[in-house]
Amino acid sequence: MVQSGGPDSPHSNAANAETSASDEARPLAPPASRECDGQPILFATTHSVKEKPTAPLPRLCRQPQKPFDKPRPACYPLGPRRVGTSLSGQGRNLTPIIVERHGPKKAPMSSSLAKSVSLALLLSIALPVAVVPALELDTERFMPLEEVQPGMTGVGRSVFQGTTIEEFDAEIISILKNAFPKHDLILARLSGGPIEEAGVIAGMSGSPVYIDGRMIGAVGYSFGLFPKEPIAGITPIEQMLELFEREDRSTHPQLTRHEETWEELLAGFVYSRASEPSHTARSLAETAAIRHPLPSGGGISPVRTPLVLSGFDATAISEMTSLLDRFGFIPIQGGAYSGEEAAEIPLEPGAVLGVQLVGGDASAFAIGTLTYREGDRILAFGHSMFNSGQAAAPITNGYVHLVLKSLYDSYKMGAPVGIVGTLGQDRIPGITGRLGTEPDLIPFDITVASPGLPAPETFHLEIFDDPIFAPQFVRWSLASIVRTTNRGLGNITLHADTEVELRSGQTLHLDNIFSDLTAIDAAGEELGTSIALLMLNPLERAQIARMQTRVAIEETLRTASIERLHLEQTRVHPEEEVALHIWLRPHLERPIPVQTRIAVPADVPDGTYQLIVSDAATAQAIEVLRATWRFIPTEFDQLLHLLEDQDRNDEIILTLILPRPGAVVRGEELPLLPPSVLHVMQPELEAGEGGMTGGKVVFRTDISTDFVITGAKTIPLTVDRSESSVRK
């Protein structure tokens, strides 16, 4: 996995230490004799390369290990890039799911899921090690860091009320050289205006500071949790202006490979119905926070960013807080603004500048300050937001309702006014944006029919197009809207039907039903995980054109467990129909019978088999154990089919498996292969193109019911072609 964030990242020290330790313990293997794409390769597992190779550049290939680890060898050109140690250094084993006669066991997720989804993804822009050319600073407008001296005084600019830019005072205390790797900070004491009582205020990030009319940098950092005076770290303007240089060298985001994270998320999705649902989309962003530890009492940390939320309920905000707090956000409940038009608010240094993560009938607005404007290009924040490298979220101007003063965290409460451009760079020195450009947004409509509403109601949202956080806001939005239009406590039955249209013209249809105390969260989690798999997939870039979810709510519990089975005949000829009786026990009701007829296919050999009658979760768990590689798509159409072809929770699944080996190659199953063919295919399977199957499904059907089904039972069925066979 490519080490992300670059050598300038303040979060890279621990990662570098891990890399060093890993390199010493696990040296690279010697060159192998195989080739990859016609180039010589070196084989390794998750080792790092410290030194730059000399020409010709070899490639580092990982040998395939196990399903959901690598479906095929992946080659990474070494060149002048830093190859870091993977956070998932050990092979990932999927815990088998054992099906008993009394129902399915829950299988805990592999602990490696939380490790490898560790979202170095948020730091996933691969940066060349090459040194950026020295910036020629306009010394008439900007003061070089070398001229800034302790004792100098200056003024800063920021908005504390409405849209009016006010000045505050700044006294230079010292220069912190190399506060972060190759990043200096100017230590300053602030005063004036609300800062006297509030201290360094969340939302001041990016406030420009001037000495003798020349800009020295932007307020970006604070010190400690309960400082007695407002001490701030000012990011030097030279470091911020370098972001323009990076922006000029890039035309569009160049994300590194996401296969490891995607495969772990895929494993979570495949197993999620037989395990805890929190091990899917939610863990994708939760483990990202590992890279952003909470500041210690005496540490340097970015000035916190208010994330003003409207249209989200308290439950969603509480969950956002536990996650986004580590990224320096303060999620607060606020509201929209209906005053000035966006065009009437001047965008100049010191003005409110925010990043809008969600807009429409729900809003998530991160408040900061504009540092510098050069034509249609802007600098802001003085620190990173997610440190995601190149980004494309909407940037907006804004309005400040008030500064809420607090001993712990004083912050600006504000609201977005209008989208004015698109985010460009999100890196350690700050963020850049370009005015007048339209960002890529995901239109998301949610229609809810509920006993709490006189008629179905539709909510219109726009979510910023980001593969990590867009799925989180999809599930938060869905859950919040359903909870606020329905009761938030008690058993409910929820039917969710979603249509996803891609810009390629392809569509994805997701349809399921949930019924229990956690139905709302389960529906949001399943949708969010599906969207994450779609957006993170390494097979083909999936750009969502629009999404629509229709939700129907019943304020009752509609569940039933499989209680017992009965076959009218347990010994049958092939193709002979036999009646199967299934008894379901609904919640708080007497058992009810369900009857169907089944027939064994003509090519099934004589013998005794176990007919499995189960819920959707157990059926999927059995199928994964039988043919794991079938759940590893190698083509984008296979991924769409996998996401769409999920059994509904209100179906009874009947499965009969013939215990004969086969294979899955490149996502396609080849059942009942002769041993000679399997032997010939063995090198291809060992190369990571597929794997063996544990049998062939000779019979599989589903029965729709009016209940969410739980449980599983088996019953023996004997196939006997003899004319004298006795049927029982």
Which of globular, elongated, flat, extended, rod-shaped describes the shape?
A: elongated
Biggest β-sheet: count, sense, barrel?
Answer: 6 strands, antiparallel, barrel
C-alpha termini separation: 60 Å
Structural category is alpha+beta
**Spans of 5+ residues with little confidence (pLDDT < 50)?**
1-133, 251-257, 274-281, 287-296
Rg computed from alpha carbons, rounded to a whole number of angstroms: 29 Å
The order of strands across the largest sheet is 7-8-9-12-11-10
Q: How large is the count of helical segments?
A: 12
| Nearest-integer average pLDDT | 76
How many strand elements? 39
User: What portion of the residues fall into strands of 2 or more residues?
Assistant: 35-45%
Q: Short description, anyone?
A:
The N and C termini lie far apart (60 Å). The chain is 18% helix and 38% strand.
If you had to describe this structure to a student in words, what would you say it looks like?
This protein is an alpha+beta fold and 728 residues long. The strands form 7 sheets. It has a 6-stranded antiparallel beta barrel with strand order 7-8-9-12-11-10.
Task: List the defining traits of the structure above.
728 residues; alpha+beta; Ubiquitin-like (UB roll); 6-stranded antiparallel beta barrel; 6-stranded antiparallel barrel; 39 strands; 18% helix; disordered N terminus
